[in-house]
Design brief:
The structure is a single chain. This protein has 2 helices and 43 strands. By secondary structure, the chain is mainly β. The chain folds into 2 domains: 199 residues, no CATH class; 141 residues, Single-stranded right-handed beta-helix, Pectin lyase-like (Pectate Lyase C-like). The longest helix is centred in the middle third of the chain and has 6 residues.
Length: 417
Amino acid sequence: MSDDDPGDSRIARRAYLGSAATATGALTLGAGSAVAGEDDSETDSKDHSKKGDKRGTDDDHGKKKKKGSTEIDQAGVVIDEPGYYELTADLSHDHDHDDCDCDDTDDHGLAAIEIRASDVTLDGCGHGIVCEDSDDGADDHPLEEMFGTAGILVRPPGHSGEKKNKHLTDVTVTDVTVEGCDTGIGFYRTKGGTIDDAAVHDNERMGVGLARSADSCVESTVATDNGHGFLLVDVHDSELRYNNPAYNDGPGFTLAADQDGTWDNVLTHNRSWYNAHGFQLQGANDNYFARNEANENDQCGMLLTGSAENVITRNEVEANGDCGICFDSAHGNRLMRNQTNDNGRSGVCLTESDGNAFVANASNDNAEYGFHLVDSDGNAGPDNAASGNGDGPICIDGGDGNEIEVNDNVYLDNMGC
C-alpha cells in the first residue's frame, strides 16, 4: 500500500469517534517452529469496517425485546443470576454510585454494570454507557486497582474475584458503547467469554481488558482514544479478530505476562493504526499473528520484548515511525511472508534477539535497512527480499551464527552495514 493511496484500510477518525464523550489522560504500558498447513487463500469477506457511535434514536433501536430477557435501564447494577439481559436506555455512571438505587455499598459493584454469574448475555441493543467521573488510581478494592471504574466488569463473586479459584464461564457482552471510564469493558477470571460488536472510546486505562482469562473471543470491536486499546494480561487460548484500535495513547494491542503467562492466543484480521505501537508483546510466548495491519503507529508496528516462539505471518506493517517489526531480547520467533514497508527506520530490527527465523518477508522503501540485526545470534532464513531502502537491504552488526538470504544473497555476521 502506498502513502498516496490509502485504500479501504485507512481509518477515518470521524467515523470512529461519532459522538463520543471527551475524556483526558492516558496510560502506557512500558513504553515457533514451522507452522503446519499455512493457508494461501484470500482473506475471508467478513466486514470489519469502521464503526462509529452505536447508539440509535428510537427507544428499541430497531430490536424486539428477547422473550424472557431482563431489562436494564439504570447504572449501578450487579447481575448475579444466569440469563439474557438487555439495555433499554443509555446509561450514565459515576464512581460514587449516586445513580445506584441500592441500600448499601455491598449492593453495587465497581462498574456501571457488573456481572458476577456464568451463562449471562448482556446485549447493549446499541445503547451506550458513559462514566461521568473516572477514578483512576483508586485502590480500595483489589480489582479497582487493576480496572478502576469500569463501564462493564465481568468477574467472579468475592471481594477480590478470587473465591475458591473460581472462573465465570460463557459470558457474552455485545452491541454496546462505553465511554469515559477507566476501563471500558473488563473480563477477570473468565473462561469462554465473548465481546462482540462493541465500541470503547476515551477510557483512561484501556478500552478492553482481559486478565487471568482463557478461551475468550473478542471480535468486531472498535477502541479509540483510550490508554491501551486492548490489554491482555495472563490470558491464553483466546482469539481476537476483526478489531480496530486507533488513536490510543498506548499500544493498540498489548499482550503481557504477570503471574500465569500469556500464550496460545490467535490474533487475525485486526487493524491497528495511529497508536503508540500497533502490537506490543511483553513476556508473551507461543502466540499467532496473521493477516493483521499495523500501520502508521508512532513507534513500532509490532514490538516484541522478552517474548519467544511467536509466529508472525502475512501481516502488513507499514509507515510506522520507528521500525516496522521490533525485537528486543526476543528469541525463537518465526517471521513469514510479512510486508514491512515505508517505515521510519528499518523494516525489521533485532537487538540481542537470537534464533529467530526469517522466511519470505518483503521489506521495501524503509528509511534505513530492510533488515537490521544488532548483537543477535543464530538468526536465519531464506527467500527474503528488500529494495529501495535508504541504507541497503540488510545490516548484520555483531552477533554470531546468522545466515539470512535477501535478494538471493546470503548474509552472514558483520555483513551489509
